[in-house]
Structures are given as structure tokens and as C-alpha cells.
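Do me a favour: review this protein, sequence plus C-alpha cells, and tell me how the chain folds. Record follows.
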Amino acid sequence: MAKSLSECIIKGDHAGAVAIVKDALDEGTSAKAILNDGLIAGMAVVGERFKRNEVYIPEVLISARAMKMAMEVLAPRLAEAGVEPIAKAVIGTVQGDLHDIGKNLVVMMLKGAGFEVIDIGVDARPPAFVNAVKTTGAQIVGLSALLTTTMPAMEGTIRAIKEACPDVKAIVGGAPVTADYARRIGADGYGADAASAVDVAKGLLS
């Protein structure tokens, strides 16, 4: 089951993924095993291939769609079994910036890695990030910016988040953002791409 399900996710075969999940549940396979050994394992392969430039955004989106549709079948069983996400992450594009493709990709990759993601959208002001972290108890917050003119908003947002929720870990990313800039503005991590952002988030949890 696990190998076939992972392959469906990798290929973006949403119909196959849904069918395998339904069959596995009918056969008594645990929801947690289906999630970890099939769905998350498949998206992990996609993430690694994306980092190596072996697949590109369209392929990742197709795999994420397959993951999403399979999760719609699996989610009620996960809830019944009390399976918790590995962590909660709040993510948004900072104030003044309306770009969301990169953010959406990170959201999908985080979900594919077992995170619960609270997406607060674009042009998100510092209070929106703070409120989302406080109300959800998120351990990770991700800030995206695609414009050099909106990068400064990251620093003020991180400051507001850290003042309100000192334990939360902040990750930044976006085309003009660099690891050096991330360090200078007080971020805990920097994601060069969506797959790397997942690795950074996992690293900050441990």
C-alpha cells in the first residue's frame, strides 16, 4: 500500500491516491500509517526532487493536489484516531506585498510534511501574524516577500511576533530574501525554496 500510494502522490495521480486510501482504510490499515508511510513519504520525494531541480512548480502543484484529495478522505479517520499534526505553522505574505505563489507552495509542502497550516493570506500586517500565532498556539511562523520594497516589513513583523510570543520560531523567504538578511532581521531560519523551508521548519522544532 505505502509504496503504491507514495508513487501516486509523486506522479500526481489523485484518483489513484484516493482509491488506495479508501482500500487501505477498508482493509484496516491505520490512518497514521497511511499518512506517514504513503502520503508524507511521497511528498518528501517530491520535495527532494524539487530541491534538485528535477521537477518544477507545476509538478509539485499536481502532487500537492493528489495529497489534498487523499487527505480529504483520510482526515476524519485521523481525527478519530487522535493523530496530531507534527506542529502548527502560521504563514503569510507581509504587509504591502500581494504575491502568493511562493507562499502557497510553502503551505502545500508544509501540509505534505504533516504540519497544520494557518494561511493568513497576503498583505498581512504584524497584528494579523501575532493574533494568528496566539489563537492557534503555532510553533512556527513563516513570512514571505517578493518585493525588495516590502522586505523591511519582515523585520517589524518579526519584532512584533517575538515580543508577543517569544518562543515561536520565525522563518522568512522569497525571491529577494537571503540567509544573511534573515539573520540581520532576527529570523530563526531562511527557506531558499519551498522544500528547504520545510526542512528548516522541522529543524527548528527539534
User: Anything to note?
Assistant: The chain has a mean pLDDT of 95.
